[in-house]
Amino acid sequence: MQRAKEVMKVSDGSLLGDPGRTPxxxxxxxxxxxxxxxxQALMRCCLVKWILSSAAPQGSDSSDSELELSxxxxxxxxxxxxxxxxxxxxxxxxxxxxxxxxxCPTGLVDEDTFKLIYSQFFPQGDATTYAHFLFNAFxxxxxxxxxxxxxxxxxxxxLRGTVHEKLKWAxxxxxINKDGYITKEEMLAIMKSIYDMMGRHTYPxxxxxxxxxxVERFFQKMDRNKDGVVTIDEFLETCQKxxxxxxxxxxxxxxx
Length: 256
Fold this sequence. Notes:
Layout: H1 2-7, H2 24-27, H3 39-42, H4 46-52, H5 79-85, H6 90-103, E1 108-109, H7 111-121, H8 128-138, E2 146-147, H9 148-160, H10 163-174, E3 181-183, H11 184-198, H12 210-222, E4 229-231, H13 232-241, H14 243-248
Antiparallel strand pairs: 1-2, 3-4
Region (Disordered): 1-30
Family: Belongs to the recoverin family.
GO molecular function, one term: RNA polymerase II cis-regulatory region sequence-specific DNA binding
C-alpha cells in the first residue's frame, strides 16, 4: 500500500507537463532546459521505478554500460545515438538499460510485462485494461513488443518533453484504433481504465459516473465542428488554450 501511495503522488512523469500549477501562457516561448532530475525523482514514475529497481549498483563496473550487445537477442542502438534522440543523460541511459536488461533479457517488453508492472504498483484496482492501452501507445509499430529504444524515447517525452510533445503522445494514447481521430467511446474506454486502476483508494472518492462526465465535458470543448470526433488539431488547440482541461487531465501524471 505504501508503494501505491507513493505512486499516486504528483510525479515528474506527467503526460501534460504540470497542469494546474504553471499557466501555459507563461510557458510559451520559453526555451526548454534539461531538468535536473535526480534518480529519486525519476523513481516516482512507475516504469522507471520498475526498471531501476533491477539496475546494477551505481558503483558497478561501467564497462558493461555500452549495452553489452552480445547478451541480448535484440541489439539496441548505441548510447550516443539514444542520448541524441532523448533528453536523458548517458549515465541515466546506462542505469535504465541495466534494469531493462535484467528484467527483459531478450531486449523486448511484451504486454504481459506491462500488466504485471501496473498490477504491482496499483494493487487496489484492476490495471489490466490501462496497461493494455499504455502498451499499445509505446508499441509504435504494433508488433506486440517494445524495444529498449522505443521504451526510452517514450519515457523521454513523458518525463521531459514539451507540453506540445506530451499532448501529441496523449492523443496517440486516446486514439485507440490509430485512425487519427478520438471518439467518445475511445476516450471513455481510456478514462474508465484509469479509474478502474486507481480503485477506490483515491481522494476525493470518485463516483461511478465520473468517467462519463469527464468525457462529456472534454468533448463539448474539443469537438469544435461537432462531427462526433476530435482531430489532433482540435485536441492540441483546445488543451493548450483551456487550463481547466489541462488541470482535469492531471490524473495522467499519477499513472505513468
